[in-house]
What does this fold into?
Amino acid sequence: MIDPYPPASDIGEILVTTDELRTRVDELGTQIAADLDGRTPLLVGVLKGSVIFIADLMRAIAGPVEIDFMAVSSYGDATESSGVVRIVKDLDGGVAGRDVILVEDIIDSGLTMAYLVDYLSGQGPASLRTCSLLVREGRTAPGVQLDYVGFELPPAFVVGYGLDAGQRYRNLPYIAIYSPSEPSGEGGSDSGGSA
Ligand code: PRP
It folds into this structure.
């Protein structure tokens, strides 16, 4: 895969390479297919960070797969999630009776995942599993079992493979540390990649 930003001075150490991503996503897809044992999963992606991951994950699952998306916005400042989540875009279809897999790019505080698990479990899915490409070392989502995890990450601000810094760098084909040469002041929704 081609790095779309060569040379990008804002990009530091690569923590997860393109090959490592491909291998692990394939493993997760194989595991999900085995666990679902012929039932059709409904993958629910949380916009926007999960889009690259879910696109690859669904192709790694042998057999029928359906997808839907939610978009959420957390109140409070950008660096410390308040745990109060506002649904900006709800599912197009329902989850009642479905085998749902909630797909995130990263568990940081875990509050977004915890809120969405509570929200979706109240709608009567046949089963509800959670999947996150990345999880902070030592973190979890409060009260939530993480069923499928790609990689654990140290507390660094990371970008790539869906994760952004001020909406940029989602299209990097790897996960790398974001180390801006000078403060950008761009703002944007960066909680997914923050330490
Ligand atoms: C990120 C990430 C998760 C959430 C994780 O989203 O995609 O949805 O934050 O944080 P938490 O575990 O502390 O709740 P972000 O708000 O950055 O939006 P984005 O996905 O559109 O980049």
About this structure: Residues 46-49, 81, 104-112, 164, 189-192 surround PRP (CB under 6 Å).
